[in-house]
Amino acid sequence: MARTAAFGLAGMAALFLGAGLAGASAQEVLGVWERDTGASRVRFGKCGEAICGTISWLKDPNGPAKLGQRIFFDMKPSGANTWKGSAFNPEDGKTYSGTMTLSGPTLTTAGCVLGGLICRSVTWKRTN
């Protein structure tokens, strides 16, 4: 079974799915987001011309995910409120493609395999 980036208890989720707030900017995505399960937090920040996400807190620090581990890479704008890039899943050690979408106070990440045929998403809420 293929897993998408950032979806286990570690709180990895590949990128964002969905639509939302028109005109959202990268600035609105920057900051700390907590996974809907409360298992992890990721800090999104600028990395060159893109956005990257790094694990900033884990409920269970003994799992495969590690503090300071970058799990979202090279997220670039791909439409209103949506970014595309790559996500790493510490649970299986694989990197996936995906999208990230901002809709008001909710961020959804989705990691995909097989050209987007199989995707898995995770919802995040802003913590700062």
Write a brief caption for the model:
InterPro entries: DUF2147. The chain has 128 residues and is mainly β.
What layout of secondary structure does this protein have?
Blueprint: H1 26-29, E1 31-35, E2 40-47, E3 50-58, E4 70-77, E5 82-89, E6 94-103, E7 106-113, E8 118-126
Antiparallel strand pairs: 1-2, 1-8, 2-3, 3-4, 4-5, 5-6, 6-7, 7-8
Organism: Bosea minatitlanensis
Pfam families: DUF2147 (PF09917)
Protein name: DUF2147 domain-containing protein
Description of the molecule:
The protein has 128 residues and is mainly β. The protein has a single domain, classed as Lipocalin (Beta Barrel). 3% of the residues lie in helices and 51% in strands. It has an eight-stranded antiparallel β-barrel. β2 and β3 (50-58) form a beta hairpin. The longest helix has 4 residues, at 26-29. The protein is globular, with a radius of gyration of 13 Å. The termini are far apart. Pfam families: DUF2147. Keywords: Signal. It comes from Bosea minatitlanensis. This is DUF2147 domain-containing protein. Residues 31-126 form the DUF2147 domain.
Q: Determine the fraction of residues in helical runs and give it as a percent range.
A: under 10%
User: How many separate domains make up the residues?
Assistant: 1
- Radius of gyration computed on alpha carbons: 13 Å
Class, according to the CATH hierarchy? Mainly Beta
Order of helices and strands: HEEEEEEEE
Secondary-structure-derived class: mainly beta
User: How many E-type strands?
Assistant: 8
Rounded mean pLDDT score = 81
Count of helices?
Answer: 1
CATH fold descriptor? Lipocalin
Beta-strand percentage range: over 45%
Q: What is the first-to-last residue Cα distance?
A: 35 Å
Question: Which spans have pLDDT < 50 for at least 5 consecutive residues?
Answer: 1-23
CATH architecture annotation name: Beta Barrel
So what's the overall shape? globular
Q: Order of strands across the widest beta sheet?
A: 1-2-3-4-5-6-7-8
* Biggest sheet architecture: 8 strands, antiparallel, barrel
InterPro entries: DUF2147
Keywords: Signal
Protein name: DUF2147 domain-containing protein
Pfam families: DUF2147
